[in-house]
Amino acid sequence: MKKLYIILLLAFAGLSGLQAQRFTGGLLLGLNASQIDGDGWGGYNKAGLSVGGFVRYPINRMLGFQPEFRYEQLGSATPELLLLKTSHLTMPLFLTAQTSVELGESSREFAFHIGPAAGLLISARDWIGFDYTAALRRFDLRAVAGFDAEIIKNLSISIEYGYSIASFVEVNQPGINNLFVGGRRPGLYHRYASFALRYHLIR
Asked: 147-187: per-residue pLDDT in tens?
């Protein structure tokens, strides 16, 4: 997983060196509503930030490749209690499909995206501040899908759904089983919905 993350970083850096007229891009700011499958609790009760940037390289008139770089907060909570708060540096790599829809005398841009997201764990703490960072896997991989809808010129709203492809903790990991009781399958998995605004600096 570490080698995969390094490769993704190099790919992102290489693509960013292309000429400006070849891509579009901007910034995003949003909120994650998350839970952890396998902890014995349910509900998207953990709120966290999602902030970063993106670039889109056109493949043809409709399709594009869109790498992103984000700081994200995920985790698990009940309505009364924070169970686990995790912070990540995340790099999604999306395939996008973009189209325009005529709305009266104007048109709006809509785009769908899907792809993997590699995450680097920064920290993991529970409600009393106990540090679980060392007990979790440093790198995790998720599948993410979503869509963007243009609100006004250069501003769009984005809705996404993400899920861990593999458990982000070793099964029966010492030091974490006292918090997480386990679910229908071994391991712990991020599950989250994300709501964000995208400001397109280059379009």
From this structure: 999 999 899 999 999 999 999 987 665 555 545 555 556 78
Assign residue 184 a region (left: φ > 0; alpha: ψ between -120 and 50; beta: otherwise): alpha
Tell me which residue range forms the domain holding 191. 2-202
In DSSP notation, 88-136 reads EEEEEEEEEEEEEEEETTEEEEEEEEEEEEEEEEEEEE-TT--B-GGGS
- CATH of residue 111's domain is 2.40.160.20
The backbone torsions φ and ψ at residue 18, rounded to the nearest 5 degrees and listed phi first, read -70, 165
Task: Retrieve residue 83's tokens.
Answer: 């169970």
Q: Are 152 and 108 spatial neighbours (Cβ–Cβ below 8 Å)?
A: no
Question: What does pTM read for this prediction?
Answer: 0.82
The neighbouring-strand residues paired with 34 are 46, 192
3-state secondary structure of 11: helix
How many domains does the chain fold into? 1
